[in-house]
Structures are given as structure tokens and as C-alpha cells.
């Protein structure tokens, strides 16, 4: 399953990795608009395309288990224990069990996927993930015909999680996908980014990435995957169902009750920082057929 997808950005589309890893230093050194313009290829609908820096991706996070400030995860998540890591797979599967992470992923090819991440709050990043297709993991555990949804659950380690201690949400954080969404080749389980293992604040050692949905669907630090018949609970939907739907597909036409979703602020834009138009399905239009016949305003 190594296909490339129309909207899967590649390193060939963007400036070499080394440049962006050190973007600030290079920009500081080059000191000219000319050099920056060269480093920023044009794109039809949305720009810039280049991945965010590691510093940005690891420094501006939502991981409410560690608090709600964007800097809290980087401050506190280092204390989370991620080894050994066991993922419980249960429900309507042929091969349920408590899988050591390596066993769950063994034999499945790790790929790089450069995806846009659009948070429901109105900001976005571009992140070069490393991971496996969720469909390959589901094939390995053997999904039974009665299964219609996949449910996910995040680890809870209260002693090192200030947000859990403070009860900022009901934990464990839970999320879910319809089975056909989960089987779509764009949906991945990420284990790294920029070729390095995930930092804890990004959801180490394994997290979901569903690039056409608002970021909160991409649940971090997964310890349980369940195949179920009924639509499973999802944390933000449980917290406020009028503001956060189960589907939560990125949709510039359906505003959040308290703000517009028509545009987004790309993190780290620096001198060129400007609001970008938000794209339907975050630009991943190949998923549209999953929602044929559905009213996406009602099923937001
Ligand atoms: N367990 C858990 N997963 C989570 C969250 C969270 O608070 N807890 N926040 C979500 C939100 S709102 C976003 S935007 C993304 C952010 O991922 P990143 O910090 O790796 O960019 O993670 C999602 N996954
Ligand atoms: Mo988010």
C-alpha cells in the first residue's frame, strides 16, 4: 500500500528537509526577501506548502492530559512513560489481544506522509509524519463483518498528567471513526515525524492522523483499539455536542458556533504569516465519496 495521493505533499514539492529543520537560522543568515521567496514555491489554493519546523511541531500542541496551554504538552509530556507500550485490540476482531507495539506493527511498511493538520480552533500546520496505514493494522487484526466503527482510547497516567489531575476533560480521551473512514488509505497511525520517533507531546509512541478531519479526531498515545457495532463516544463530542460533531470533517462552509471556519492561521508563517483559505476536507477531496448522500451541515 505505497500509493501516493494527489494531496499527499512530497519532499519534491517542498524545500529540502534540512532547510526547514533550520529555517529560522537560514532565514536569519540569508537576511533577504529574495532568499525567502526562493524557498517558498507557489501553490494554487493555499500557501505556504512547506512543513513546519520541528520546533513548531513540538512546541505548539494540544494534549489536554497535560493542560490546555499550547506550551503545556512540551513542558510536561516528557514525564509520560512510553516503554514498554501495549495496545489492547478488542471487540469484533479475529485476533484480539494485548499487543506489544512492535508486534502490532511488525511486517507493515512505514511510510512518510506530509499532511496538513487543521485544528478546529482555526490554526494549521504541515507535518511530515512517519507511520503505517490504519487499514493495514486493521487487516492484521482481522475485522469481523459485524464491525461498523473503530474506537480509540488514550493512555491515562494521572501522576504525570496535570490536566488529568485538574479534570479539564473527562479522561481517558476517546475518539472514533466509521469503519470505511478508518480503512481509507489517507488514515494513518503515526509513530514518528521528520524521521524521528514521535515526541511525547505529539502523541508518542503511536497516534492517529486523519488529515481531512479537525485535529481533535487524531487521538494521541493510543492504548486501545476496539472494533464495534455502534458509533463510539468521542471526547469533544461528549463535552459539547453542539460545537463538535462526531464526523468533524474540515469544512469551510460550516462555522463553529463561536467562530468562522472559512480561514485558518498557519503556525510559523513568520514574515509571510497570513490567513489561508480553509479547504473542503482540508484539501483531501478524495475522501468525498465516503460522505455521498450525507448532509454535511447536519452531520458536521
Ligand atoms: N489524547 C489526546 N489526543 C489529542 C488531543 C488531546 O488533547 N488529547 N488534542 C487533539 C487536538 S485538538 C489536536 S489539534 C491535535 C494536535 O496534535 P499535535 O499537538 O501533534 O499537533 O491532537 C489531537 N489529539
Ligand atoms: Mo485541535
TrEMBL record:
<comment type="subunit">
    <text>Heterodimer of a catalytic subunit (MsrP) and a heme-binding subunit (MsrQ).</text>
</comment>
<dbReference type="InterPro" id="IPR000572">
    <property type="entry name" value="OxRdtase_Mopterin-bd_dom"/>
</dbReference>
<keyword id="KW-0479">Metal-binding</keyword>
<dbReference type="InterPro" id="IPR006311">
    <property type="entry name" value="TAT_signal"/>
</dbReference>
<dbReference type="GO" id="GO:0016672">
    <property type="term" value="F:oxidoreductase activity, acting on a sulfur group of donors, quinone or similar compound as acceptor"/>
</dbReference>
<protein>
    <recommendedName>
        <fullName>Protein-methionine-sulfoxide reductase catalytic subunit MsrP</fullName>
        <ecNumber>1.8.5.-</ecNumber>
    </recommendedName>
</protein>
<keyword id="KW-0732">Signal</keyword>
<feature type="domain" description="Oxidoreductase molybdopterin-binding">
    <location>
        <begin position="81"/>
        <end position="236"/>
    </location>
</feature>
<feature type="binding site">
    <location>
        <position position="119"/>
    </location>
    <ligand>
        <name>Mo-molybdopterin</name>
    </ligand>
</feature>
<dbReference type="Pfam" id="PF00174">
    <property type="entry name" value="Oxidored_molyb"/>
</dbReference>
<keyword id="KW-0500">Molybdenum</keyword>
<feature type="binding site">
    <location>
        <position position="154"/>
    </location>
    <ligand>
        <name>Mo-molybdopterin</name>
    </ligand>
</feature>
<feature type="binding site">
    <location>
        <begin position="218"/>
        <end position="220"/>
    </location>
    <ligand>
        <name>Mo-molybdopterin</name>
    </ligand>
</feature>
<comment type="similarity">
    <text>Belongs to the MsrP family.</text>
</comment>
<feature type="binding site">
    <location>
        <position position="207"/>
    </location>
    <ligand>
        <name>Mo-molybdopterin</name>
    </ligand>
</feature>
<dbReference type="InterPro" id="IPR036374">
    <property type="entry name" value="OxRdtase_Mopterin-bd_sf"/>
</dbReference>
<dbReference type="GO" id="GO:0030091">
    <property type="term" value="P:protein repair"/>
</dbReference>
<feature type="binding site">
    <location>
        <position position="61"/>
    </location>
    <ligand>
        <name>Mo-molybdopterin</name>
    </ligand>
</feature>
<feature type="binding site">
    <location>
        <position position="202"/>
    </location>
    <ligand>
        <name>Mo-molybdopterin</name>
    </ligand>
</feature>
<feature type="binding site">
    <location>
        <begin position="64"/>
        <end position="65"/>
    </location>
    <ligand>
        <name>Mo-molybdopterin</name>
    </ligand>
</feature>
<keyword id="KW-0560">Oxidoreductase</keyword>
<comment type="function">
    <text>Part of the MsrPQ system that repairs oxidized periplasmic proteins containing methionine sulfoxide residues (Met-O), using respiratory chain electrons. Thus protects these proteins from oxidative-stress damage caused by reactive species of oxygen and chlorine generated by the host defense mechanisms. MsrPQ is essential for the maintenance of envelope integrity under bleach stress, rescuing a wide series of structurally unrelated periplasmic proteins from methionine oxidation.</text>
</comment>
<dbReference type="InterPro" id="IPR022867">
    <property type="entry name" value="MsrP"/>
</dbReference>
<dbReference type="GO" id="GO:0046872">
    <property type="term" value="F:metal ion binding"/>
</dbReference>
<dbReference type="GO" id="GO:0043546">
    <property type="term" value="F:molybdopterin cofactor binding"/>
</dbReference>
Amino acid at each position: 500500500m505505497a500509493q501516493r495521493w494527489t494531496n499527499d505533499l512530497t519532499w519534491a514539492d517542498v524545500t529540502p528537509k534540512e532547510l526547514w529543520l533550520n529555517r529560522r537560522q537560514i532565514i536569519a543568515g540569508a537576511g533577504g526577501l529574495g532568499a525567502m521567496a526562493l524557498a517558498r514555491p507557489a501553490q494554487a489554493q493555499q500557501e505556504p506548502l512547506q512543513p513546519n519546523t520541528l520546533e513548531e511541531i513540538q512546541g505548539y500542541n494540544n494534549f489536554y492530559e497535560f493542560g490546555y496551554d499550547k506550551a503545556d504538552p512540551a513542558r510536561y509530556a516528557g514525564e509520560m512513560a512510553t516503554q514498554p507500550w501495549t495496545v489492547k485490540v478488542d471487540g469484533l476482531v479475529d485476533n484480539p489481544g494485548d499487543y506489544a507495539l512492535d508486534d502490532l506493527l511488525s511486517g507493515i511498511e512505514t511510510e512518510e506522509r506530509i499532511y496538513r493538520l487543521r485544528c478546529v480552533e482555526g490554526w494549521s500546520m504541515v507535518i511530515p509524519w512517519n507511520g503505517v496505514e490504519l487499514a493495514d493494522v486493521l487487516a492484521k487484526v482481522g475485522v469481523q463483518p459485524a464491525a461498523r466503527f473503530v474506537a480509540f482510547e488514550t493512555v491515562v497516567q494521572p501522576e504525570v498528567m496535570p490536566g488529568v489531575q485538574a479534570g479539564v476533560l473527562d479522561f481517558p480521551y476517546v475518539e472514533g471513526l466509521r469503519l470505511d473512514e478508518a480503512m481509507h488509505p489517507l488514515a494513518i497511525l503515526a509513530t514518528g515525524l521528520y524521521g524521528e520517533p514521535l515526541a511525547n507531546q505529539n502523541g508518542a509512541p503511536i497516534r492517529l492522523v486523519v488529515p481531512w478531519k479537525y485535529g481533535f479526531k487524531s487521538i494521541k498515545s493510543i492504548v486501545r483499539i476496539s472494533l464495534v457495532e455502534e458509533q463510539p463516544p468521542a471526547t469533544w463530542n461528549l463535552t459539547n455536542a453542539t460545537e463538535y460533531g462526531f464526523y468533524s470533517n474540515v469544512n469551510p462552509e460550516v462555522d463553529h458556533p463561536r467562530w468562522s471556519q472559512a480561514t485558518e492561521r498557519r503556525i510559523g508563517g513568520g514574515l509571510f504569516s497570513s490567513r489561508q483559505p480553509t479547504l473542503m476536507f482540508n484539501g483531501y477531496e478524495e475522501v468525498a465519496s465516503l460522505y455521498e448522500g450525507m448532509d454535511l451541515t447536519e452531520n458536521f
